[in-house]
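User: What would this chain look like folded?
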Amino acid sequence: MKIQPRAFAAFLLVATVTVASPARAADALHDLLARMDKAASTFQAMSGKVTYVTHTDVLNDNSSESGTVVMRKVAPGEVQGLINFLTPDPRTVQFEKRSLQIYYPKIKTVNKWDLGTHGEQLDQFIMIGFGTSGTQLARDYSVKVLPNEKGTSQQDIPSIRLELIPKAGEAREYLKKLELWIPQTGDPYPVREKISQSSGDYRLVIYSDLKINPPLKADALQLKLPPGVKFEQAGK
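Assistant: Here's the prediction, encoded as C-alpha cells.
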C-alpha cells in the first residue's frame, strides 16, 4: 500500500514530537535547575501576596484564604517568616527557629507551638522554590517536568511545571509530592505550588506581586500585638 505524502508528513511530525519531547523536557529541567542554582546564591528575602486553596479529599471540599507573606533566610537551611491572613478569618502566623506562633486577633490569643525536629521539615518545605538551589532539589527529590495544565499559569506567565517526589522516607511522611510552576524565563521563583498528601488532600499556594530581596525593617517578621494578649502553649 502506497503512503500518501500528506499522511507520511503527519506521521513524521508526530514521530518527531514524540521523540523530541523527552529531550526538550530534559533540557528545560537542566536549564531551570541551573537558574535556581544561580538565584539561590543571592536570595535573602521575599514578600508578596498569597492565596491558599486547601482541598479535603474525603469531603471533596475546597476552602480558600488570602493574605500577605514575608520570608527571610537567616542561616543556611533556616528561614523566618510571617504570613498575615486577611480573609476569611484574620490571623497571623509567625515562624522562626523551630517555633510557630499563631495570633488570633478576634480573641486576642497567641498559640505557641514547639516544632522540635519537625521544624527542619517545615523550613525545607517553606524554602522550596525560594533560596533552594537546583542541586539541592535534585539531591532531595526525584524531579521531572510535567505538561502544564490549562489555566494554571499565573498572570499569563509561561511556566515550567515541576514534579518533586521526596527521596527520604521521613519526608514522605509529610507529603506525597510537590509541584512547582516556575516562569520559563527571568527569576526562577514559583508563581504556584501544590503540596499533595497520600490521603488525597492537597494545598495550592498561589503567589502574586512577588518582590525578591526587598528592603525589610528590623521588625518586619515580628508579631504586632496589642496590650492584653494571652499566650497559650499548644499541646499542653
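The two ends are 80 Å apart (CA to CA). If you want, I can go into more detail on any region.
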